[in-house]
């Protein structure tokens, strides 16, 4: 079939026609392979399987099909090794990056569980102290930012009139005073909890003298106070 002067190649639907065409073109292909091998003195190997799984092959007289297959495999392996030699450390670097990302994912999962109140029984006392300070610092930053946003919204919604600058300033100072008061209350409650914990530890582990405190009491007594001012972070 011709379309716009070109022969359209497509599958033949009639089985008998396919068999006749296969026989003719196979013979032509084998003939062309033989001519190319003789004219150019190059080794050529050709393998054909029919629809009935019948094998047809051709090999140049100067070589054998086994040798051609071995040369083909070596050539393919050579190309693969050449491509790999351009980046010899590529595989190891990818593996290291993968392991690093997996560790980071595990750390993020653990942090999410901790912030949700899960897995706290796996932490040591020092880890719990650091986690508590981190939570208090995050809470302080969140509240400070909240009051800043409230102040900005107040300035946008209420344009500053003449003669009322002091009232605007006093309103902002009142908000900051509330933030500082909340932080002081948190510090006070935390100190009370630490005192209760100290008493519980003393009741459970009585000492014979004050000169031999345990490591737990040392940590409790040297616990750093949480920041009470917005700038003390």
UniProtKB/TrEMBL annotation:
Entry keywords, A to Z: DNA-binding, Nucleus, Transcription, Transcription regulation
Residue stretches making up the MADS-box domain: 2-62
Compositional bias per record (Basic and acidic residues), positions renumbered to this chain: 150-167
PROSITE patterns: K_BOX (PS51297), MADS_BOX_2 (PS50066)
GO molecular function, one term: DNA-binding transcription factor activity
GO biological process, one term: positive regulation of transcription by RNA polymerase II
Gene Ontology CC annotations of this record: nucleus
Alphabetical list of SUPFAM superfamilies matching this protein: SRF-like
Subcellular location field: Nucleus
Ranges for region Disordered: 150-170
PANTHER family to which the protein is assigned, alphabetical: SERUM RESPONSE FACTOR HOMOLOG
The protein, known as: MADS-box domain-containing protein
UniProt source species: Microthlaspi erraticum
